[in-house]
Amino acid sequence: MYLLNPLQMNDWDNRRFFWVFQAIQLAFIGVILLDLLGHYIPIAREALAFLYLTFLPGVLVLKALRFHNLGTIETLLYSVGLSLAVLMLTGFAANIIYPLLGYARPFSFASLFLTTVAVVQVLLYIALTRDRGHTTSNPKVEIPPSPAVPFLMLLPFLAILGTYMRDEYHMVTLLFLLLILIAIIGLAIGYDQFIPESCYPLAAYTIALSLLYHTALISEYVWGYDIHHELHLANSVLIPGFWDMSIPYNTNGMLSVVALVPIYSIICSLDPVWVFKILYPLLFAFVPLGLYRAIERQTSPKIGLISVFFFVSFFTFYTEMISLARQQIAELFLVLTILAMIDKTMDRGRRAFLMITFGFAMIVSHYGLSYIYLFSLIPAWLLLITLERLPFGLQELVRKVAGTLAPDLLAPRGGNPQEIRTLVLPYILIFATFTYLWYSTIAEGMAFATITGIWDKIWNTLFVDPLNPTTAQGMQILTRRSSTLLHSLAKIVHITTQGLIAVGLLATLVKAKRWRIEPEYLALSLIFLLINVAGIIVPFFASSLNTSRLYHITLILLAPFAIIGGITLYETVASRIRMITAIPLMKTPYQILSAFFVVFLLFNSGLIYQITNDNPTSMALETTGDKPVFNGKEVQGARWLYLEGINRPIYVDGMRWWLLLGFDPDHQRYLPANVSLVEPNSYLYFGTYNLVRESVRLEAQEGTVTVAGYTDAEQFISNKNRIYDNAGSVIYYR
Q: What angle do CA 16, 21, 25 make, to 5 degrees?
């Protein structure tokens, strides 16, 4: 069955494009007007507004710049990325220009709605004018007749229903089923069963979205750590209708939080809590899709999908990243930058536009990821130009040492290297300039000061105290004794993946012709591997982001090398022990790798620990224990506390600290181990866990390691007056 491809609207003829576009826009405006008049159509405004904001501006930019015949996946991904960039820049421009014109609330519905529609109309005019001479092809899309299509599309809905059952009835059966189905899909990929190659992109997106939703949708409130501060900053824009760029927080300089969230919240009529919980996972799931496309273009569809399965199976993807909205958006721009970088078929001007645009969007989305990318670009570029300029004799020596190396170890394949290579000095200088200008001016330069402070810490301890587990967080994780045998086995599985990556990188260098990895991708991957090593041995390096986040970031580039490494090891063993290929379930390397990464998923998701009741770790499957997941009564109590306009110190334990961070970070204090240190005329906030267990969580920092323990709550509440109690949270005053 063939249909006109809606994901490649930029390739349609102008007449068809204009009328379809206007029909979508009129439907969008009509639904909003009906809603304003009191005729609410369930989901219609939210869905149409999300589609309008997320896809149409980017499609117009592609058409205006005459990007054609990119293919469905690239067109979809670039449209999303360009749309988000347009929205963030629109919010930023409105915040600066409207107050100068006497309008003090640029982030209000009237201003944002009219501004967005106006910007889209201008882009439409430019697109139709500039693309007038395009020879159209009106591309069509085939809907695969495979039964895998409806099955894969049902996975996110199973995640939604499963989290609802968990929250309302404390039943996790459907979430168990979801993880088992995803594991079965992982096996089916390796065994060439059920999932045809035409469904691989759909599988990459729906598996990722299902894993994200199975954790993001637990609770009716945001959960995790940093996301509470992100919520506070988003509300600090929504309530006054203005973004105060001078507030000295790192996150306050990130348009992915202070511009994008308010725009989606206002236009879609969604509470920012649900923007974080519903819309951001929809956007973040494009990261694995982009990763699949980048790997598939260089290797094969099967390697691409298994790489994505490995990437999304790592627990950080669907746990820690849920509470880091700004990094979710920045990772999307990183993947889009890489995708544009490896596309040597695109002309230089268009590729430069995409790389610079996505690079700038990454800078204004997350400072940590931007710094890592910048500090990787420089050595990767030096590596490329060094190898290109080696004397002929040294090049021959390199080839002999490598044995089967192609003549182009990392250099471009044929032609003039300066004309083909996409990682060039001007791009790095532009990216570095944007980074410095933005981080040194917005939010009083806090993001720039932060990286300076981290560097000072690293430099002062690098040669004095290396490999010390109290300062090198990665080393602390490796040397820490696991609590049980299963957890020890999980650590071995994780270490094995890193070994496979190292083998895969070496195999790629040795057999460059076979794996066809682009030089820029390979050079950046080598630097990312060094970043992983630095996270283990360099003091205060990994702890700046957390070791798990650092590994997750490096997997964006390194994931395919684990698959290449596994294939290399299998072929090496099979060449010596030929009977291996005759053993059932081991006939191909893909069968073994798919089974291995399914085990990797079962450990990372916590399913194995939950089944065996062995120190469960899953946020979704484990409904007891002390976690940064807060119920409605806890949120209600925190809201009451701050609505009272309290300006006195508020004491809270280590876990409830994050909840209060989402309301006002200026007055809360950590509960001290010594009760006598609690200031007089202060408040004490208790959550549900504190009340049920009659204990509080006390935390202390020892180097890069947070040491936590629980103590009796009674000592803190004696001689205090209970001024609020809703049976889920209590507030005391003394």
A: 155
Q: pTM score > 0.85 for this model?
A: yes
- Interval 471-500: pLDDT, tens: 555 555 656 677 789 989 999 999 999 999
Residue whose C-alpha is closest to residue 91's, from 113, 76, 60:
113
Q: Is the CA virtual torsion 659, 665, 670, 671 positive or negative?
A: negative
Rounded CA-CA distance 400/395 in Å is 9
CB-based contact 215:620 (threshold 8 Å): yes
Phi-psi region of 199 (alpha: psi -120 to 50; beta: other; left: phi over 0): alpha
For 613, phi then psi, to 5°, come to 50, 50
Which stretch of DSSP H or E encloses residue 572? helix 547-576
Q: Cα(first)–Cα(last) distance of the chain, in Å?
A: 71
AA identity, residue 446 = M
DSSP H/E element including 711 = strand 705-712
3-state helix, strand, coil in the chain (%, to 5): 65, 5, 25
What CA–CA distance (Å, rounded) separates 608 from 130?
A: 57
Picking from 550, 552, 543, 545, the residue whose alpha carbon sits closest to that of residue 706 is: 543
Q: What angle do CA 197, 202, 204 make, to 5 degrees?
A: 90
Helix segments in 299-366, DSSP class H: 301-313, 325-341, 348-363
587 backbone dihedrals φ, ψ, rounded to 5°: -75, -25
Distance separating alpha carbons of residues 411 and 522, to the nearest angstrom: 10
**What amino acid is encoded at 538 in this protein?**
V
Which helix (H) or strand (E) segment is 414 a member of?
Answer: none
> Per the structure block, which two tokens stand in for 630?
């807060």
Q: In the structure encoding, which two tokens stand for residue 573, read together?
A: 């063993």
Of 249, 164, 236, 148, which Cα lies nearest the Cα of 198?
A: 148
pLDDT digits 0-9 by tens, 563-608: 999 999 999 998 888 777 777 778 899 999 999 999 999 999 999 9
Could you tell me if residue 218 is left (phi over 0), alpha (psi between -120 and 50 degrees) or otherwise beta? beta
Contact 296, 304 (CB under 8 A): yes
Note the Cα 710 to chain centre separation in Å. Answer: 32
Q: Where are the alpha helices (DSSP H) in 6-108?
A: 14-36, 44-64, 72-100
Task: For residue 713, give the 3-state DSSP assignment.
Answer: coil
Using CA atoms, how far apart are residues 245 and 213, in angstroms rounded to an integer? Answer: 32
Asked whether 63 and 127 are in contact (CB, 8 A), the reply is yes
The two three-digit tokens of residue 260, written as one number:
């994008």
Between CA 685 and CA 638 the distance in angstroms is 8
Q: What's the rounded Cα separation, in Å, for the pair 119 and 90?
A: 8
Tokens 């609207």, located at residue? 9
